[in-house]
Amino acid sequence: MKKRIPQISPSERRMYGAFFCVIVVLFALCTAYTRFSPLELVQNSDNFWAFLREDFLPPAIPGAAKVENIINSIFVTVAMALAATTTAAILAFFVSLFGSESVSPFPKMAKVVRGFAAFLRNIPALVWAFILFSSLGIGTGVGVVALCITSFAFMVRAFAETMEDISQDCIESLQAVGASFPQRVAHGVLPSCLSGFLSWYLYCIEVNIRASTIVGMVGGGGVGLVLFSYIKSFRYNVACSIILLIAAMVIAVDLVTGRLRGELAK
Length: 266
Hints:
Layout: H1 10-34, H2 38-43, H3 45-56, H4 64-96, H5 110-121, H6 125-136, H7 140-164, H8 168-176, H9 181-220, H10 223-232, H11 236-265
């Protein structure tokens, strides 16, 4: 008789069982504290599906002039994401040079730079948008700044982590021959990290395409503002068409950037 070999050891099985129990207990406590009932959500789902059938579906296409306005707003949204990401990437590159202990000429300053980036990153773009709109007014320019702040913070951390993977032998050999800090960056950092920088840049474009739609809904312009205007006017069938266009835009951008990141990883 063949002896059965367990795929998971008893200690691991107990650990996974305890972890599952903790998740169940936390879920029960959180639902009780927030008064969220999954059963009540299922019971009242008929209203949701009725709303979709009667108001959102089928999608409606507005007049030619309004279709042109919607298409133009989509291009504005893409332009906002590209402008914010590119500006943030340039700024993040120079700041991240001081956020990497292995590259920075002031290693003790690296933790301060990373801490500042972590602070900015932990505030969502939507919150920055509300702050900027309240102080500077609405507009696509303010929306770009809101996206740029969060993208800058994200890429500072990402670029600094990428620089940490550089072989120290390369940096030390450049220092040994008397290379200055800009020369070490140009001949040691960029050749080793450029593909990683570009991958993070492309990933950030994907994130900002989605975020620019949300920022636009609160006054940042682009397709988000157009969508919100149709929702406020109760023209849900036209809003459904815009949502489908946004989904197509996001999928197309994800496919393009994913393909480019795959090429860079080779």
